[in-house]
Amino acid sequence: MYVVLVGPGALGSLLTVHLAPLITATGGTFHLLDHRRDRADNLARSGITLHINERQRTVHPAVSSDPLAITRCDILLLCVKSGDINKALQHAASLVKNDTMVIGIQNGMTHLQQLRQSKGVAAVAVSSVGATLSAPGQVIYGGGGITRFGLLTPHSPVPNFLKELLSLFNQARLEAEIVPDIHPHLWEKLFINVAINAVTAIHQRKNGQLLTSCAIRNTMKIAVSEAVAVAKAHGIPIIGDPINQAFSVCRKTRNNISSMWQDVLNKRPTEIGAINGYIVNEGKRLGIDTPVNADLVRQIRQIERSWREA
After folding, report:
1. What is the spatial distance between Cα 175 and Cα 159, in angstroms, rounded to a whole number?
2. What digits encode the pLDDT tens for the residues 140-153?
3. Domains of the chain
């Protein structure tokens, strides 16, 4: 099988360490595609190192910034920010044929339509695996979790390429499954991101530290309740208790620095529009009030503006 992973961020780097050697050992090929040539060249020389507690594991995958240098792609794994999906799809366009699996692993919901419009067979994944990128090619394991794959058209026949990818994940000891309808799981992850990401960035707290403040916990509860109201208006089945699930994730990943806080620390554009911003926009469209999510969006946008004005 021929796999191309786009994006050497935290999750992309972690998956590369686990999947690249296994795919190569089974007779397939794995390429890491990066739009930046300088970074791709550095990663090709130094490899990618995964830090798990006191242990380290380094792999040296094939890395390129030129998609034309890659001869074949059965599965295109997009591990980029939601706002970079279009750019990633355009960069990798030469690799995508009608039967290529194009799988997006992003936070939020705004990338779904972009994936639907892409050439190939569109699918998405929802992952609760934790990872933090400490430097290019240096990724810190943040905790295990399940990755769920699903086609954007619910209850469609599962392509063989996706079945093979699932097998590879499980062989690599990355818990994974294919679900008949991915949408409830996308919303389940969205509820967690709505509760945690912006709040950690605004208050500069690790996940577990959010639970030490009654005021912050109340903000999280209301933000999730607003998101649940929007989901119900969409006819989405609600899995479990979203508020308790968000709190549980905070406890399990108590030392994790959320992706949005990492973006703020590095003065990178955040995914606020795809997470809390999506809830606000859908709330407006559906006539549902979402004042807490709107305030979280306002505060993150203010932080982003402060970088541009500095």
Report:
1. 19
2. 987 778 999 999 98
3. 2-178 (3.40.50.720), 183-309 (1.10.1040.10)
